[in-house]
Design brief:
Oligomer: single chain
Radius of gyration: 19 Å
Strand content: 15-25%
Shape: globular
Strand order of the largest sheet: 3-4-2-1-5-6-7
């Protein structure tokens, strides 16, 4: 089992013929991901060969879905075109849109996330590394060779910390790792992933990675307290961040105790979550929980 992405997923890549799209499509294919097509209206009808794997290019998401049965799209288009790309995917009825693009204007994100919600399309991102179910499929830019399949579920705001925790726990393995993105507005939240991991019979433990700023982690802590029975281990980036500064890609301003790593740690620990102060300490907490059978 996995959440949101399995070996059965059929993936389109919007912007596949661009530099980033080509590079990461090649990596996804090498990892065994079932990429069934690209989308570029100006290059429709062409085929791109990736090491003897021909991938057709379609003029629209709807055309690609009709031809291939695709149910996932990965968006590698510039920020100015992201709103149109995600709106097109949602209007076509795709089930999952993974938006890698960084620098999307917040008002654009609000608009396309509202459209996607009304159309029943789940969005991961924007400004995210995507997600991977090791041994099954990967949609985005998460390296496929840093962890094996296992029974840990990971949800993270930070792309880099997603990779680091995967590497720290590579010998145990993961059901699915989801990088939700650190923008002020994102399509899939910690709580959404906590819900899915709680329901997944092959996820035994959940790792939650947060960052300073905002109250997403505090809301996740309240949800864990009331709804999650599986063990959760957490890490909050930013324990050494100075107050009153805008920090990181989250654009988070920490003022007083609001939004600090310490405040988030306290909220999570009050919900029964073990919180590490470093990624390595967080990994040790995971090992201790698994060894204890808690």
């Amino acid at each position: 089992m996995a959440i949101h992405l399995t070996k059965e997923s059929k993936i389109l890549v919007q912007g596949m013929t661009g530099g980033e799209g080509m590079k990461h499509t090649r990596r996804m294919l090498a990892a065994g991901t079932n990429v069934v097509g690209g989308v570029n209206p100006r290059k429709a009808g062409r085929t791109v060969d990736f090491r003897d794997r021909p991938v057709p290019v379609f003029g629209s998401v709807a055309e690609g879905m009709d031809a291939t049965g695709a149910d996932v799209t990965v968006v590698f288009v510039p920020p100015a075109f992201t709103k149109a790309a995600v709106t097109e995917a949602a209007d076509a009825g795709i089930g999952l849109a993974v938006v890698i693009t960084e620098g999307v204007p917040v008002h654009d994100s609000v608009a396309f996330l509202d459209r996607a919600r009304k159309r029943g399309t789940r969005v991961i991102g924007p400004n995210c590394p995507g997600l991977i179910s090791p041994g099954q499929s990967g949609a985005g830019i998460i390296p496929a060779d840093i962890a094996k399949p296992g029974r840990i579920g990971l949800v993270s705001k930070s792309g880099t910390l997603t990779y680091q925790l995967m590497y720290e726990l590579r010998d145990i393995g993961f059901s699915t790792c989801v990088g939700i993105g650190g923008d002020p507005v994102v399509g899939t939240t910690h709580i959404d992933c906590l819900t899915a991991f709680q329901e997944d019979p092959e996820t035994d433990l959940i790792v939650l990675i947060g960052e300073i700023g905002g109250d997403a982690e505090e809301r996740a802590a309240a949800y864990i307290r009331d709804h999650v029975t599986k063990p959760v281990v957490g890490y909050i980036a930013g324990f050494t961040a100075p107050e009153g500064r805008t920090m990181g890609h989250a654009g988070a301003i920490v003022s007083g105790s609001s939004g600090t790593a310490r405040a988030k740690q306290q909220a999570l620990e009050a919900a029964g979550v073990r919180v590490g102060r470093t990624p390595t300490e967080t990994a040790r907490h995971v090992l201790a929980v698994l060894d204890s059978g808690a």
